[in-house]
User: Fold these one by one.
Assistant:
Number 1:
Amino acid sequence: MKKISFITVLITATLVIAVAQNRKSSPKAPVAELPRHPKLVVGIVIDQMRYDYLNRYWSKFGNDGFKRLLSQGTNFDQTNYNYMPTYTGPGHASIFTGTTPAVHGIIGNNWYEREEGKTVYCAEDKTVKPVGSGAEEGLRSPRRMLAGTIGDQLHLSNNAQSKVVGVALKDRSAIMPAGHTANAAFWYDGGSGNFISSSYYMKELPAYMQEFNKQAHPARLLQEDWNTLLPIDQYTESLADNNPYEGRFKGEDAPVFPHKLPVLKEKNGNMGIIRSTPQGNVLTRLVAEAIIKGENLGKNTASDFLSVSFSSPDYIGHMYGPQSVEVEDCYLRLDLEIAAFLRFLDSWCGKNNTLVFLTADHGAVENPQFLNDVGIPSGFFNDKVMMDSLKLALKKKFADSLVLAYENEQVFFDRQRLERKGIDKRAVEDFCATYLMKFKGVAHVMTAHQMAMSEFISTPRGEVQKGYNFRRSGDVCVLLQPGWVGDWDRVTGTTHGAPWSYDTHVPLIFWGWKVRPVVSDIPVEITDIAPTVCTMLGVQFPHGCTGKTIPATLFWR
Ligand code: ZN
Ligand code: ZN
């Protein structure tokens, strides 16, 4: 026994020495090898950026913004949303969770919440306190989102050594991307002109954010009129500056340049007006840089994560529509901000240590009146007329109107009343489906029962189903025809929300750490972004992820 033990020890010792020598003699990693993790990951969202803007404004862009991202990075030019409704809250949640409203539960910006018996806002949370402002705007958290994000997975992967922060002018666009375990999220309070947060994240604003607010950038940025960047006759991609499809600031006689911001701001929410100007993008870029410096993001041993959403293109798009000089000018100026931000990242961590991805939370339709005038099917759908008519019809048929709410193109029944009165829910759903099809502009009506019994993969029913959350969504879903918009209180500008390509086709660009210059036309769904980024970072997919990783061989490693 003793002898065998001695031999075992001898063999083991020899093996250990051999392994140690082997390690010692193994060649060192090549000097040029890139770091195993990017030091900083930046997820950029451009609110309402249609894919085609990249092409439409290409000849007017400089070399250092979008053109730099595309020439040095990967452009997945067939990236689409795979659900409806294509709104800001759901869009931001879907990009960073890798799943759709069916799972993450952000079924709209607002929805009728049965458990609370009222309409709620996707980021509202009355249990928290504002930080940096005494106002309602601070009562925000990600608690209504039912799935985790890329940032949450980073935290889980390394015992929260990564720092994860989100920022945007819109609260929901800062909060959803950063996720549940975020170190911080900051958003803009138009009343004070300050960036604020909530007690969900912190007790008080960090010193660097207090300092940023003290510098009063919004007041400075609003001292000048909004003029076109280039001589206005060069905006040949857009309609004439003065056209009937555009909305206006309060106090303006016509939707034309120059927009006199110093004069207009009083009637348009004071510091809040910056949201609807390209200056909002300047402010967003400045605050993103202040956060990176203040939090020292990218100087950590683990990968840090920042989401930055540029909200102003959405406000400008809503007011003026995709055919306007204002939207074109917004993107030409945004191009300059992207260029400045990339230069900042160059000097901060360097391109090879920074992974950037850029996408949008939805697109937008051309103004329906404009479409109609050029002969393309379209229309403004009057939700109220339809719902008043439906309620009367239900009353006639079932002796009760039975409807609690109509939101995000979904009819919510009073389910308790249905039960109490012994009315068959499915019979009411079927009645509604048949009745609502009578209205001009309705393409299709789907019921909760259909959604429970079948899996739809076809367009557009598959998109409706992926946006349908059984705990939160309504009982009957209305889908409008292409080019039609509902829930829109004016005939100028534009909106979004549909599963049609103008709302679903968005840019997706990867740039920086390990990314190769590639143009790829493989079909990508918006829910593929999060698992792809997680694969690149070597972490688990977000809980609830239903997307799939874009193959590494296509564009990185
Ligand atoms: Zn949006
Ligand atoms: Zn919008």
Number 2:
Amino acid sequence: MKKCPKCKIRYNDLWYKCIMCHTKLVPKQKGVFLFKKRFYVNLEDPECLLGQLIEQANTLIIFSTPSGEALMCNEAVEFFTGYKRDEIFKQEWLDLLYKAQQARKEMFKAVMKGCLISIRSKTYEGAIFRKDGSECMLSWRLATIRGKKDKNLGLLCVAHDVTDRKITEDDINIHGQRVKDILSSIREYVLMTTNLEGKITYYGLGARNIFGWPADKVYLEDISLIYPKYNRSYIIKKISEEIQKNAKFEGEVKLLRKGDIEFPAILTITPLLNRDGQTIGYTYVGKDMTEKKKIERQMIQSEKMAAVGQLASGVAHEINNPLLVILGRLELLDVEKLSKGVVKTLNILKTQALRIRTIADRLLSYSKEKKPDIKPLDLTRLMKSITPLLGYYPEFKKILWKEEFQKGLPKVKGDFNQLQELFLNLGLNACQAMPGSGKVTIITRYDKGERFVEVLVKDTGEGMTDEQMQRLFDPFFSTKEKGTGLGLAVCRNIIERHKGNIEVESAVGKGTVFTIKLPVAD
Ligand code: ADP
Ligand code: MG
């Protein structure tokens, strides 16, 4: 401990003036800094505690005048900036550290000014330039030092190097952004996340594309909205059981898109984990299988058709010749000479022989032998010709038949007889699907500019199961006692030859809608 030379009071390293007699205790000399006129800091004096603290700190410390002149700086300055202490001391240090980067310098100065005005300490992050021109990212803390009467003595500027952290942060940001970009550019897959309560927390572009709802509509909605309403609870139960058992779900499910349209999809649900491995929600990845299923079905169908087609035409030809003989002979018989019982039997034979001929005809028309004679057709006239033909069938008499034909339809490209057969088949099937009573509605419609005219054949009949729907167009598939199972197979061929399209929607117990698209004539 040193003693004041005048009043002999002991003083410590931090004193500049004696607190009793105000004798100056430390001579003014280079490297000695007077702090609040009371404490002195001598960075070079090994006995000055404060000086040593500042000197040994591995943070950059500059004490600057409000105008930006460096009054003091510690040794770390040399390490951080590459300048010798003498180069900075008493200099406009910001000019050195920011070189030509005027904008950055102004920014720092603004922070300094803010600090001086508000008297609050401030933090700031920014790069300075070392003497060798390289950049050093510093995190600053600035504090005003006030003297008597609140006079601003200057600013204490303390900084540490955050270059490495900044690089890592930038890397993470770039990486994160890249992952985000990748995720949000996936259009073909549903990508979603939910929280533990099953509320949607992420809904990517693919999901928007496939489900059709906008993101803001869906955000924080319950995930159950993606499942068809009729088996929602069943699906959710099944999925949660599976997740409990195997920690994930993977399978083919029916999902629901905007407009209550169901579609087949492959769905994978996996837990979403946080850094500590805790489950914080679920990730949903799904693929819309509509197109694939359709193509698969078409492939199977066309293979089957080709095989069955060949067989059918062969059989039809073989049957036709003996059938012609039977029918010819039946015609030639002189019935007046025969007994009533025999005539009755012969009539039955004739009816059945004619039925065989119908089947043979259908087989032939199925086997693609008939080339369509395609001309521009008036579709309304064609549709109006169906009811007189249907009138021959007893099923038609029991039902209500409604026609909603749009006016001014363009002509379609088609073969009149074949299209008549097509709609007769569909109309008859609709009537047959409603034992007892029901309503069939035939709708024609066309949107300006479209390439196809649509015809809808709607019934309120028994509908079909999924399994029936899959086999509907298969030749010989029939659920009717006297059905041939060829009607729709023929329809499909006709549609194919017309380069049109046929689609079915059906619900058991509710009814069925066949939608036929026919190309507009040029
Ligand atoms: P068929 O009428 O001789 O049975 P189709 O090829 O015309 O043969 O039809 C095949 C099957 O498709 C039918 O047996 C029936 O099960 C089903 N089907 C066709 N149309 C309908 C409909 N409108 N409503 C319900 N089921 C239908
Ligand atoms: Mg039929």
Number 3:
Amino acid sequence: MNHSTPSPDPSPQCGLLYLVPTPIGNLEDITLRALRVLKECDLILAEDTRHTGHLLKHFEISKPMLSYHKFNEAAREGQVLDRLKDGKQLALVTDAGTPGISDPGQRIVAEALASGFQVQSLPGACALTTALSGSGLPTDTVHFFGFLDRKSARRRRKLTACRDMDGTLVFYESPHRILKLLEELNDLMPDADVVLARELTKKFEQYVRGKAADLWAGHAQLRIKGEFVVLVHQPGV
Ligand code: SAM
């Protein structure tokens, strides 16, 4: 393996879309390359310009921004592609973590590729990979579901369908529904090993590990504030 080959330097006249991961809590978790791209690009597409404004200020970066979020991504498509046609280099960021992972990004990536533009995805902070590697659960086969539906019947259908899946199941879940998910896991797969990865990279980072049935039985003791990744593995499946 050659560790010294830099990723191709795009020619300046060619429009290019960068996907730039940002920290999921700890501001140190941004790469040198991400900072360089944010400094050198022509425009930052940001899920929330105020939020990204704080990040840029922290790193003393001053750059024009355009909002790009799930409510305007369809409307923005033409504008973004026009800028790429003009040869601009754009950097897409979301509030935290990797664009396109339960966040805006997939749609504009598909459009940019279909229109023949280059897309460069930078590696970096992501709650999915951080939780998975810290969980201690098997990492060879992984199924990522993002957020489950809010509707009980649809959640249950999805969880029932993944009950027989081999490997580690990974969910993002809001603190409002974390107990609901534990109850569902207790009902459907009580013997599964569950890891609750909470507030990753932040001051109150915590991994809670146990059988689904035991975590549900002891749920009154759990701290359910903050952000969670829930990982599930059924031994023997
Ligand atoms: N794109 C992001 C990524 O790369 O992880 C995910 C964005 S999604 C809108 C937000 C969800 O990711 C949260 O509800 C939580 O499930 C998970 N998440 C993000 N940051 C986290 C953290 N610091 N600790 C635990 N979970 C986190």
Number 4:
Amino acid sequence: MQLVTFIADDRRRVGALLDDGVADLTAAGLPADMVELIESFDPAAVVDATDRAPRRALGEVRISAPLRPPKNVMAVGRNYRAHAQEFSRSGFDASEKETLPSHPVIFTKAATSVVGPEDPIVLSNDPTGTTDYEGELGVVIGRRCRRVTVEQARSVVFGWTIVNDVTARDLQKRHVQWFVGKSPDTFCPMGPAIVTVDELPDIEDRFLETRVNGEVRQRARIAELIFGIDVLISTLSEVITLEPGDVIATGTPEGVGIGFDPPRYLQPGDVVEVSIEGIGTLRNPVTP
Ligand code: MG
């Protein structure tokens, strides 16, 4: 199933995305908060609620970010080979010791940076004027867990979403640690939906594509990840308790703005779209 958080009648609700609109699961008695829904997830109850729920046309609702995770968004740097090489060439990675990492490079983005589809990426939140896009697969964790093995990892995944790991490049470089450059408000567009893992078990075979004003900038198969989804979950959960609603942004492929010479930073009026087959398209305008 494809689950969304949406605003209708000035109230936040959780819905199931259907061909002809959204089934209002909150009106059918399920939680209005996606993290609560994931914590108490009962597939049969959601199917039953979808059948009973009032339908709303897509034009009547505003889709927001699917959730605000319980901790900062966890994210992975330099996790596609060609991107690791372009990032290294750009000179923007002040923490780099080797072009291809031997262990996952993990950082976080402030939870307050999360916005939804169609929400603007606000350039003035980056005082250095070096705002860049990074289209990524987001993994949504389904249950509280620790010390998950690679073999068990898929069992703790709730579903998949799309994340744009928007980055202030000069801040990323200047502060060495990436947290500041990755965390300005509006710099984590997420959505539009969470697709449950049972509906999209072959996520590694799907293509991710990022377009700026319709021009394709990034295109890669998820399988090209250096450290795959299950390894990331195992690595993180070895030391951190993962919780329902936690999000792992798995890394971005080649084709970011700093991969060009000169760099092609986002400009006011740009529109960034990140698509993953089977999940949808996350579209955000860029404003001053
Ligand atoms: Mg990234």
